[in-house]
Amino acid sequence: VCRNLIRFCCQQISLRELEGAERWAAFGGIVLQYCDLGRFEQNRIEENGLREGLPVCGIFIYYGEAINIAMNIIVRNGLPQGSNDRVMPGQRGGIVLRYLYKTSDPSKLYVQTFRPFNGVPAAKIHDNIVLQPLGHALYAMVQGPVSVVDNQFTSMGTDRTNPLSVIASTVLLMNLGMTPDMLVPMGILKLMEHPDPKFDEAVYQKNPAYLKLLNLPSGKIMFCSNQSTLDMRSPERNVSISSQLILSLDDIAFNTNQSDCNGMFAFAHEQVVSDVTLLNTVLLGASVRSNDNRFTEGITMGLYSLLSVGFLMATATGNQASHCLIVSAPRRIEKDNLVLNDDLCRGERRLFLNLVKHQ
Q1: What pTM, to 2 d.p., does this model score?
Q2: What angle do CA 279, 357, 327 make, to 5 degrees?
Q3: 322 within 8 A of 347, measured Cβ to Cβ
Q4: Out of 21, 97, 116, 301, which residue is the most buried by the measure of CB atoms under 10 Å away?
Q5: What pLDDT sits at residue 349?
Q6: Beta-strand pair 44-46/39-41
């Protein structure tokens, strides 16, 4: 699907409350139930579903394999909400990929000259401009390698009808793939006891758990050189836990990104009301590398710029942030980071030192 102008679609959707299975039906510029080896390039998808509160997507794929989304402009699909009370629940977002899977051929696992996987990633999302009036600019649940590079993701507000949007308002990327390093602490590498390089049925029967996990795709995520913005400068008060959440059981490369949360002060009932985003970016993975990024929260009521948790390893170097960085892992490196508002960081360090002294 290349070089199309998709505009002013979804103008006759009923305004009644969607119920049952219809609630999870998707409307938008490009909507597919299943797609294999799909390419969506150089399309302009804009101003679809111009009715307040309707759930509208730019690109929606319910189930797919090996999807390539590149150089698209996806803007203003669905009008900004006037009030969350009038927002209808449903599938809403700029790029919504409900489930992408990298398939393998189990029969090739027993053949010495073949491998069960090829080199094609489960999803490749490059050079897109996405402006979503309400909800996720990017939502993807994937099992397989993912590359998200050189995109501009902007969300104008949190969709309160969707709990996942409250958790992460701009980008929510979850990968169910697993790194082979996670198999070592699980203690199931019994296959190494068999020196025969050729897999046969007897070996499979002796090591069923390991071979089943070995046949699963990896979960590597490359999220690099993107500009992500949660723009909350509207009269509506926006409350969310984070702007971005990236989760994987494999490696996460979060490098050279610019992640912004823009809010504003407003006066209501003789009180000052500010937008709240507790965390700019949350990274949870087996190994996490967050280097050379810029995290900006401005006047938003935020506590932390980055929460990076590695189950095995984590690295955070050369970052610049408005608020504190939290990096946690059994093996970690955290150095050469600059924090603009580090009062909370110093308070946490003093609390930690006091706890250590009393032990």
Answers
A1: 0.85
A2: 25
A3: no
A4: 97
A5: 52
A6: unpaired
